[in-house]
Amino acid sequence: MKYFVANWKMHKTYIEAFEFLEHFKNVPIGLNECVIIAPSFTLLWPISKSMGELKIKLSAQNMYCEDKGAYTGETSPIHLKDCNVEFVIIGHSERRNLFHEDDELISKKLKKAFEYNITPIFCIGETLEQRKNNLTFDVISKQLSIGLSKLTESEIYKIIFAYEPVWAIGTGINATPNQAEEVHEFIKSFLQKNFFKNEDINVKILYGGSVTPNNIKDLMSISKIDGVLVGGASLIPDSFERIIKFNRE
Ligand code: 13P
Known about the structure:
By secondary structure, the chain is of the alpha/beta class. It has helices at residues 14-24, 41-49, 77-82, 93-98, 103-115, 128-132, 136-147, 153-158, 177-194, 216-220, 237-244, and strands at 2-7, 33-38, 57-60, 87-90, 119-124, 160-163, 204-208, 227-230.
């Protein structure tokens, strides 16, 4: 299965979102393709009611780690279930850096998502400074160790991991296939060593950061890549369609 996730971030009005969905009515989605869109919270409900025959699945961009209570401005997994949300992005670098989410909070969110049977798309990745200082693997190890600390082996197996180097997000500078492959391999072996001691487990790992119709083919050619998490290029229906169809052109 290959995953194509559109993270719309804080973009798209109601009308723009429905124009996008209208476009995708004519885009066939293969049996081994999983297409997911992550719109803003306010769009989850109307979109969930209008999916019809569309094979696109819904993700939230975030959620809180409690069921309910006095948490003004937060969104609980119960609200996401109301909207038939199947996936939730957790630990995006914009949440970590702009909204100061730390690994501890992220680990609680991951645990809570599983309580509600929502599959987390768990983002990890290093900044440019960390990469320059040869800290990439240390940073990723810490994000994984603390982030996954509350989960069972079978929960970890269900996670969709997303390697998103912070320096590649929204910059137009994607990781080279070699750079992505090196980190994907590291994530896989780290998980194997620390969480799946008894069995050889095939975790799902996506790449995110300046993915476009022009570089998708190269990125998807690396061995351990199960799909992509796309920001900017997912806002334009035609370019997201070309990303999904990278192998058919
Ligand atoms: P861009 O594709 O705009 O670089 O964003 C990547 C991203 O943050 C997806 O979650």
